[in-house]
Design the sequence.
């Protein structure tokens, strides 16, 4: 069965339109909060995946950078808006390079 792409397009809406409708327009406090939360989650995922690749526990990583395991857990869950200095320490401990542009 062949699906007509033009008919299918009628049922889709651009992501920007949906985000604006559900969260708020770009620049609004609600949108800024959502984007900050999304970035925190994204960075946490990157760090968690790398830590797991290295077969390192949260406790071992925390000890390596001089913090608590609970802080690492909160970062990995996206519950913390991580400071740049903390991100750089964690990235270094995980053998990751961070580039600022």
Sequence:
């Amino acid at each position: 069965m062949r699906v007509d792409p033009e008919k299918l397009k009628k049922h889709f809406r651009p992501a920007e339109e949906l985000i604006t409708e559900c969260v708020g327009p770009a620049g609004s406090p609600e949108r800024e909060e959502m984007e900050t939360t999304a970035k925190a989650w994204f960075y946490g995922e990157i760090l968690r995946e790398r830590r797991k690749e290295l077969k390192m526990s949260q406790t071992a990583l925390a000890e390596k950078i001089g913090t608590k395991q609970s802080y690492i857990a909160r970062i990995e869950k996206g519950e913390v808006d991580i400071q740049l200095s903390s991100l750089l320490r964690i990235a270094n401990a995980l053998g990751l390079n961070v580039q600022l542009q």
About this structure: The chain has a mean pLDDT of 93. The chain has one domain: 5-93.
